[in-house]
Amino acid sequence: MIRIRAASVNPLDWHYMRGTPYVVRLGGGLRRPRVTRLGVDLAGRVEAVGEKVTQFQPGDDVFGSCKGAFAEYVCTSQDAVAPKPDRVTFEQAAAVPVAAFTALQGLRDTGRLQAGQKVLINGAAGGVGTFAVQIARWLGADVTGVSSTRNLDLVRSIGAHHVADCTKVEFTQSGQRYDLIFDLAGNHSLTDLRRALTANAFSAQNCF
Fold first, then answer.
1. Which residues contact 87 (CB under 8 A, 6 or more apart)?
2. Which residue of 24, 107, 195, 205 has the smallest Cβ count within 10 Å?
3. d(CA 36, CA 196)
4. Distances, alpha carbon 134 to alpha carbons 9, 10, 103, in Å
5. Helix crossing, 97-104 with 127-138: angle to 10°?
6. Structural domain spans, the chain
7. Tens of pLDDT along 89-146?
8. CATH class given for the domain over 2-94
9. What is the C-alpha to C-alpha distance for residues 21 and 16, in angstroms, rounded to an integer?
10. Residue 205's pLDDT band (boundaries 50, 70, 90)?
11. Which residues in 95-172 belong to E strands, given as ranges?
């Protein structure tokens, strides 16, 4: 059992709350929600543990994911949380799980990004995008981040080698080619994205 100290709000929570787009209801319940406890990301302090819990004890600070993170207390599996680093606040830790996992899975697991490859992150200043820029840089890729004018300095400061202003530059028509496009904005068609990929880059695994 964890006492919640901070919880973050993601588009995921909003979609489940509204039941839109309709495809969300396929997993969340067609007529009414299967899960009525909102919230996924959390950071807090362990209050009590079951007899089979071996990784944590009362008083430990943790962060992770569960159902119902918007509550004051929540029960979850020990595998769903990790120790919170001392140098990270509860608020900072609660902002990590969904956004960071999405970025990591998209780039490493699905996109199979390799060191030396060129990756473009469209929506680089958002929750997932800011993690994606840093993870891509850590993986050794050449990183281009696309954002609005006001966020270009932010995207550059977190590791992007190149930045593009989405209000001034149309990256699908710039002539530049990328080995991977991580499209978080969803404002381009697959045909347009394919135009900006290298000849051998396009596959189901590396177009988002």
1. none
2. 205
3. 42
4. 21, 19, 9
5. 50
6. 2-94, 98-195
7. 999 999 999 999 999 999 999 999 999 999 999 999 999 999 999 999 999 999 999 9
8. alpha beta
9. 9
10. very low
11. 118-122, 142-147, 162-165
Q: What is the Cα–Cα distance from 91 to 8, expressed in whole angstroms?
A: 8
Minimal CA–CA distance to 135: which of 99, 87, 162, 165?
Answer: 99
Q: CA–CA separation, 147 vs 128, rounded Å?
A: 13
Both structure tokens of 46: 């362990």
pLDDT in tens, 32-82: 777 777 899 999 999 999 999 999 999 999 999 999 999 999 999 999 999
CATH superfamily label, 98-195: NAD(P)-binding Rossmann-like Domain (3.40.50.720)
Any residues with CB less than 8 A from the CB of 134 and at least 6 apart, and which?
Answer: 158, 159
